[in-house]
Amino acid sequence: MNSAQPETFEYKDKSFGDATPIVVTTGPTVFYPTTTTTLLLSGVRKFVNPGATSVLDLGCGCGIVAVVLAKLILPHAAIHASDISDEAVKLAGYNAAQNQLKIDCRCGSLFQPWSGKKFDVIVDDVAGMAEPLARYSRWYPSHIHSDAEEDGTRWIVRILSQASEYLTPHGQFFLPVLTLSDQTKILNTAQKHFSKVDLLAEQWYPLGEDLLPHLDLIENLTSRGIIEVKKKGSRWLWATKVYLATNPA
After folding, report:
1. For residue 113, which of 8, 11, 108, 189 is within the disulfide window of CB 3.0 to 4.6 Å?
2. Quick one: pLDDT band at residue 192, thresholds 50, 70, 90?
3. What are phi and psi of 69, to 5 degrees?
4. What is the DSSP secondary structure assignment for residue 166, as one 8-state letter?
5. For residue 148, what pLDDT is reported?
6. What residue spans define the domains of the chain?
7. DSSP 3-state assignment of 183?
8. pLDDT class for 10, splitting at 50, 70, 90?
9. Distance CA 201, CA 199 (A)
């Protein structure tokens, strides 16, 4: 995450037959969308309730998830987006306007901007990474500290414990889980607060050059059950997994 990143991000998923990309502007001080974003959107596109009328993009960053929701997935729903970063919220609002969309963008920590509101769908893009790895990762802009604690679960556990307050009775909560965090703790929390937690998709990736020099740390975290990595041949792999949490009738 640095000034060398592209100034725009293009979303297009050929598996859904997308012919024209959706383009948003990005910035060096805001999280740049990744393959986690694309995998999360894939899960939403496959499993979202098409009758949803109110949707929240939580941890919106530049607003790509909210824009795709409004433009492509649920064009008739009221779309909301929030982020703790004022810069991110301004950028999300700009991208909404550039795509001629009406998106309610608010600044605040987690659910704080949405007191008293309920949504049919919440798409959470606040994924966590074990803090020791986050410090070495290019995932975070240099000025942002994740503060997700050693196991990477601080924020997602808090979100899961509060989410039901902001969902309609049969609402859907979509979330990504990185194997570079304590998946067991996250899933145990999800199952405590939701009746049903389904794995929708997972994708494995090679560790990047930013993390490979720190294999001693990675092996230590793995041996303690905090993260999960796999070795395939000469490559070390980690994964993003996308889940859907619901309270079915």
Report:
1. 108
2. very high
3. -60, -45
4. G
5. 74
6. 8-204+240-246
7. helix
8. very high
9. 6
Please report, as a single letter, which amino acid is at residue 49.
N
**230-241: pLDDT as tens digits:** 999 989 999 999
Q: How far apart are the first and last CA of the chain?
A: 42
Residues in the chain, how many? 249
CA count, 13 A, side-chain hemisphere, 116: 0
User: Residue 145 corresponds to which tokens in the numbers above?
Assistant: 């500290």
Q: What is the chain's alpha carbon radius of gyration, rounded to the nearest angstrom?
A: 17
pTM for the whole thing?
A: 0.93
Nearest-angstrom CA–CA distance, 61 and 81: 9
Which three-class secondary structure state does DSSP give residue 165?
A: helix
- CATH architecture of residue range(s) 8-204+240-246: 3-Layer(aba) Sandwich (3.40)
Q: Which among 158, 203, 194, 221 has a CA at the least distance from the CA of 35?
A: 203
d(CA 94, CA 72): 18
Show the tokens assigned to 72. 């492509």
**DSSP letters along 101-154, please?**
--EEEEESSTTGGGTT--EEEEEE------HHHHTT-TTS-TT-----TTTT-H
Q: Residue 89 belongs to what H/E stretch?
A: helix 86-98
pLDDT in tens, 78-132: 999 999 999 999 999 999 999 999 999 999 999 999 999 999 999 998 878 888 8
Per-residue pLDDT at 143: 60
* Paired strand residues for 104: 80
Beta-sheet strands, E only, within the chain: 8-11, 22-25, 54-58, 78-83, 103-107, 119-124, 167-178, 196-206, 230-232, 235-246
Q: What confidence category does residue 140 fall into, taking pLDDT thresholds of 50, 70 and 90?
A: low
